[in-house]
Amino acid sequence: MDLVRIIIAIILPPVGVFLQVGFGKHFWINIILTLFGYIPGIVHAVWVIAKY
């Protein structure tokens, strides 16, 4: 299941984080990072999925 979440995180980083942790602080941090740049959003999403 983590592989599916990582693929989703590459396409839409906030959705991947949402599937892992829900509407928590990591979700909102990822929204902000994705708005600042697509790559930081992907990196954060993959990190959250790998950590949790």
UniProtKB/TrEMBL annotation:
Gene Ontology, cellular component aspect: membrane
Keyword match Membrane: yes
Organism the protein comes from: Jiella endophytica
Pfam families, per database record: Pmp3
InterPro entries per the UniProt record, alphabetical: PMP3
Subcellular location as annotated: Membrane
Similarity annotation: Belongs to the UPF0057 (PMP3) family.
Lineage, broadest ranks: Bacteria, Pseudomonadati, Pseudomonadota, Alphaproteobacteria, Hyphomicrobiales
Membrane-spanning parts: 6-24, 31-50
Protein name: YqaE/Pmp3 family membrane protein
Assigned keywords, A-Z: Membrane, Transmembrane, Transmembrane helix
Keyword tRNA processing in record: no
